[in-house]
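In response to the reviewer comment on reproducibility (Comment 2.3), we provide here a single inverse folding case reported in full, input and output, so that an independent group could reproduce the run without further information from us. The structure tokens appear first.
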């Protein structure tokens, strides 16, 4: 993670009070706030003038909103952007649209006594701003042939259709993850008959909308996980924000989960490790673990557990990752079978569950 003193930020918010609160928090955290903007137009101008490392961007602003500002910044001066979103369904939808336009991640503004809540969350805000500042903005991922590349450089053609019985896929991601998870899910065919668990570091109130977006964009039935939920082939669960997702039972291809409010693991909840470790312990059919872009080390131990029980493992490569932290930590375990650019990860998954591979 970048040292705070090396990080320069622009803060954009239409509320003078919020601009002051956010600026003070970042400054106290050692981040140099080089400019303040009260709307998207001023944010675009500030990025052009100051070339900051990161922008914190309000969603709803006059003259030019956060979405248009993100689009303009990515077109003119690609810069990592952190969206600051209210905890409402409307802001959740707009926030996901901003991510589609190139924003890296988002942070939910607290409700109630804002100054007190922001003070309580100040360490989290500083950490996520530093994390987003390390991301590569506006990254274009080239379309590659349908192949699977191993760390050793071997190439295996993608399979053409017949898959093992009752495969389970677990996807873990964090910073920069929502759009790449959508990309993977939109490409997986229904006839692969996967049961899928998705753990995206995301707060409560957004995971339901995220699940709905995945359901709309994929051939799978995707819902937000509920305690005691069951899924079988062709279905997927998104870990609910602020809860760990544990696999508690697996019988004849039906997978059952529970939600817990146990302490954070790797400083996050939901944690990828919790889901992968419990899945590795419970599932005796084919299992694939995938680690996508994100800051930190969550998922590395889960990948190790999946590999130890005979499962297959994939990590996103550095070139296509907004932040390479989680994939890198997973690769360093020595338990990753295949390192892939994001556009070939779906084919790698299908290769690993093809009957020919077994």
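Designed residues, in position order:
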């Amino acid at each position: 993670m970048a040292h705070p003193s090396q990080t320069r930020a622009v803060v954009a918010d239409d509320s003078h009070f919020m601009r002051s609160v956010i600026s003070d928090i970042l400054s106290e955290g050692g981040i140099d706030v080089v400019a303040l903007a009260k709307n998207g137009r001023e944010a675009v101008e500030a990025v052009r003038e100051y070339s900051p490392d990161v922008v914190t961007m309000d969603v709803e602003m006059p003259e030019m909103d956060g979405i248009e500002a993100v689009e303009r910044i990515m077109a003119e001066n690609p810069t990592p952007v952190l969206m600051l979103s209210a905890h409402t369904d409307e802001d959740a939808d707009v926030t996901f649209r901003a991510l589609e336009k190139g924003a890296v991640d988002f942070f939910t503004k607290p409700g109630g006594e804002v100054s007190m809540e922001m003070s309580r969350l100040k360490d989290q805000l500083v950490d996520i701003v530093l994390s987003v500042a390390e991301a590569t903005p506006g990254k274009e991922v080239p379309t590659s042939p349908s192949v699977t590349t191993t760390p050793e450089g071997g190439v295996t053609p993608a399979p053409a259709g017949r898959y093992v019985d009752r495969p389970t896929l677990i996807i873990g991601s964090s910073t920069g993850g929502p759009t790449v998870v959508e990309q993977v899910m939109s490409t997986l065919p229904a006839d692969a008959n996967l049961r899928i668990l998705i753990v995206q570091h995301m707060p409560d109130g957004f995971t339901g909308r995220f699940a709905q977006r995945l359901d709309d964009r994929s051939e799978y039935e995707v819902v937000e996980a509920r305690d005691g939920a069951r899924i079988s082939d062709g279905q997927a669960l998104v870990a609910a924000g602020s809860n760990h997702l544990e696999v508690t039972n697996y019988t004849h291809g039906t997978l059952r989960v529970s939600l817990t409010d146990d302490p954070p693991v790797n400083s996050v909840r939901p944690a990828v490790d919790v889901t992968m470790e419990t899945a590795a312990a419970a599932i005796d059919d084919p299992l694939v673990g995938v680690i996508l872009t994100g800051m930190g080390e969550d998922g590395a131990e889960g990948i190790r557990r999946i590999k130890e029980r005979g499962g297959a493992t994939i990590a996103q490569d550095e070139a296509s990752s907004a932040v390479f932290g989680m994939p890198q930590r997973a690769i360093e375990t020595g338990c990753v079978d295949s390192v892939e650019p994001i556009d070939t990860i779906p084919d790698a998954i299908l290769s690993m569950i093809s009957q020919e591979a077994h």
